[in-house]
Amino acid sequence: AQDALNNGEVPVGCLMVYDNQVVGKGRNEVNETKNATQHAEMVAIDQVLDWCEMNSKKSTDVFENIVLYVTVEPCIMCAGALRLLSCGSVLNVSGDDIPDTGTKFKCIGGYQAEKAIEFLKTFYKQENPNAPKSKVRKKE
């Protein structure tokens, strides 16, 4: 997330771990690539797919066993992609009422939450360097 912030991106970072090994990691790259789909999770997904190909692994088997670490809750696009890839269940885990599905779901919320919030606050206080000059607003 810090690297994303340092590069003028929304400060989101993501790790994907399979069999205790990081097989994908990403940070937002939307502004750098001028591609609105390059969220941290999507960048990490691409890396996992490359890793699967290089290691002769079936991506479906790998994604079913991925442990996802992300600094903020995935957006609807990323949640949809993760679900389509069978990356576990995508739930709103910010609440206490998680339904019993028969499968244990482990979520550790709030880990470094204040740091993630500070990254977001810092980002949104900045000017958008890609905005047309006529659209630049003065931040107070």
UniProtKB/TrEMBL annotation:
Keywords: Hydrolase, Metal-binding, Zinc. GO terms for biological process: tRNA wobble adenosine to inosine editing. Residues 1-105 form the CMP/dCMP-type deaminase domain. CDD domains: nucleoside_deaminase (cd01285). Its cofactor is Zn(2+). Pfam families: dCMP_cyt_deam_1. Gene3D superfamilies: Cytidine Deaminase, domain 2. SUPFAM superfamilies: Cytidine deaminase-like. GO terms for cellular component: cytoplasm; nucleus. One of its GO terms (molecular function) is tRNA-specific adenosine-34 deaminase activity. This is CMP/dCMP-type deaminase domain-containing protein.
